[in-house]
Amino acid sequence: AQGGSIVVEEPQTGKILAMGSSPAFDPNVYSSSPLQNFLNPVVQKIYEPGSVLKVVTMASALDAGKITPDTTYIDPGKLTMNTKTIKNFDYDARGGHGKVSMTYVLAHSLNTGAVFAEQKLGNENFLAYLKKFGLDQKTGVTLPGEIKGSVRPLLERGVRDIAFATASYGQGIAITPLGLLQAVGAIANGGNLMRPYLDASLSPKVVRRVVSAEAAQAATKMMVTAVDQAGV
Q1: I need a labelling partner for 41 at 20 to 30 A (CA). Which of 77, 94, 148, 211 fits?
Q2: Catalytic choice (22, 31, 32, 51)
Q3: How far is residue 179's CA from residue 169's CA, in Å, rounded to a whole number?
Q4: Which residues have a Cβ under 8 Å from the Cβ of 37 and sit 6 or more positions away?
Q5: How many angstroms separate the CA atoms of 230 and 19, rounded?
């Protein structure tokens, strides 16, 4: 990898315990480093989060009552929308997974399963939940130059279903690393989105509730299962 960032946050409070990125620069000899290294990518660069966002899609559909962890569908391994074909990462090796649950979808990171959950939720509702999770907003952390994420492809006139489908598994939209941590942290925090902070003089602040405590708990259990089944 050409670079990377690590952030450790306490989800119940939003307190940032550690933050670091590479490549960085030595402030004692800053002139020897390229200008781009002066940016803090945790809050000043956006990227496509990819499959990590599937848990946000699932939590949203759970909260809306459109799925349960045990809801099943038939996974064909791929699907075509608007002349574009979406595949699971392992389609070429094994094809479809057959009849599987939403919990299985997270455990095995199935793109088609995330699309299924998004379609159950509906495009308009899905977009509303992405906004509730803060994907198009700044986190409010007290760091200079913070930028906000972008769900712009989902706002364009005549946007096609394929754009929402790929967004369900984190492609086509973008967010800062801290914005993603804030969103996933809300699930770990029982559905409450917290403002991240580093200043020790500040206190925890709830931005808003994004999903119910029940939906957050169900999504958390699904994530635990995904870890338990990793590599299976």
Answers
A1: 211
A2: 51
A3: 16
A4: 23, 24, 25
A5: 27
**Mean per-residue pLDDT, 101-105:** 96
Which pair of structure tokens corresponds to residue 30? 């800053």
Strands 72-75 and 15-22: unpaired
DSSP single-letter state for residue 33:
S
In whole angstroms, give the CA distance from residue 229 to residue 12: 26
Nearest one of 124, 117, 123 to 63, comparing CA atoms: 117
Query: What is the per-residue pLDDT across 57-101, written as a single tens digit (0 to 9) for each?
Result: 999 999 999 999 999 999 999 999 999 999 999 999 999 999 999
**Known catalytic residue: 32?**
no
Contact assessment for residue 167 and residue 154, using Cβ atoms and an 8 Å cutoff:
yes
Measure CA of the first residue to CA of the last residue in the chain; give whole Å: 26
Are 29 and 160 a contacting pair, CB within 8 Å?
no
- Radius of gyration for the alpha carbons in the chain, expressed in angstroms and rounded: 18
CA distance 25 to 153: 34
Average pLDDT, the chain: 95
pLDDT tens per residue, range 184-231: 999 999 999 999 999 999 999 999 999 999 999 999 999 998 888 766
